[in-house]
Amino acid sequence: MGNRPTVSLVLGSGGARGLAHIGVIRELESRGYDIRAISGSSMGALVGGIHALGGLDAYENWVIALGQSDMLRLLDLTLSGGGLIRGDVLIQRLRELVGECNIEDLPLDYTAVAVDIERGREVWLSDGSLFEAIRASMAVPSVFTPHAYRGRLLVDGGLLNPVPVAPTLRTLTDLTVIVDLNGEAVMPPPLRIDTETDPGLLARLRSYLPGGNGNGAVKVAESGLAMSDVLMRSLETMQAALTRRNLAVFWPDVVINVPKNTCRFHEFHLASPLIEYGRRLAVDALDRLEASSGVRGRPPSP
């Protein structure tokens, strides 16, 4: 290995837990690891793309300052199109915040993974508009409307590949680091924050679901779970199973598991503790790697 070990970084899908990706990237960079390739699904595609574009500082500052009412203003709700949110307002705000470019012009290899819902196939987006690719990859079924792009109807890449390792294999690097956002639940919940209280964001989304009463009181009989909770937990269960399958095929050097009960899908108002939690998980994982393998990063030159 050279002075700065090179890294292929795989960033998984998982809603607000994806803010932990920021902390992982920060810790890798602080130790001098050189990220040469990124692939991501959903929030992994978003955070990875913004980092590749050089906009992570601006995005981190912005998302930390967001309150729940700020999030509501970013939601262009709709009753048609196969989802609750069009996503145009959010994507435009991100473009204004960090800029835009084509993926092929980024300084590192980047792939956003989406799913062609009509053909039932995984799609790798590795050229063209960065934010068109991100919008496609983050189209969580029933939450965001599917994204029509290049003659295809695309949805969240996490449906078929929540930790997309394969796109990074075309780039020769020293290490492959995976961040899985659907790790086994731990008790007590990692952030020790009461996530049972329904914030206004989820309550408003629930009011648009079938049977919603405008107060977030959509319940599944006897379970005590809201329909939106059932949907998100079902997606998480499916993604966890797909992740286990992928990790049995690929042999990454580092897997950073973010427990699935760290927070719920919509809790972006927990940005600051989520970022710090991701950093702490990366510290533990990289300490183990360096102790067992002798791999060492080197702080970047000032």
Please explain how this structure is put together.
The chain is an alpha/beta fold and 302 residues long. It has helices at residues 20-30, 43-53, 56-65, 68-73, 88-98, 130-137, 200-206, 227-249, 271-293; strands at residues 6-11, 34-41, 83-85, 109-116, 121-125, 142-144, 147-149, 152-156, 175-183, 254-259. The strands form two sheets. Strands 1, 2, 4, 5, 7, 8, 9 and 10 form an eight-stranded mixed beta sheet that branches. Helix 1 crosses helix 9 (271-293) and helix 2 runs antiparallel to helix 6.
What does the main sheet amount to?
Answer: 8 strands, mixed
Shape: globular
Average pLDDT metric: 85
Helical stretch tally = 9
User: What percentage of the residues does DSSP assign to strands (E)?
Assistant: 15-25%
> Which stretches are low in confidence, meaning pLDDT under 50 for 5 or more residues running?
195-200, 208-225
Percent helix: 25-40%
* Helix and strand composition category: alpha/beta
Which descriptors apply to this entry?
single chain; 302 residues; alpha/beta; two-stranded parallel sheet; 9 helices; 19% strand
The gist of it:
By secondary structure, the chain is an alpha/beta fold.
List strands and helices in order, with pairings:
Elements: E1 6-11, H1 20-30, E2 34-41, H2 43-53, H3 56-65, H4 68-73, E3 83-85, H5 88-98, E4 109-116, E5 121-125, H6 130-137, E6 142-144, E7 147-149, E8 152-156, E9 175-183, H7 200-206, H8 227-249, E10 254-259, H9 271-293
Parallel strand pairs: 1-2, 1-9, 2-4, 3-6, 9-10
Antiparallel strand pairs: 4-5, 4-8, 7-8
Helix pairs in contact: 1-9, 2-6
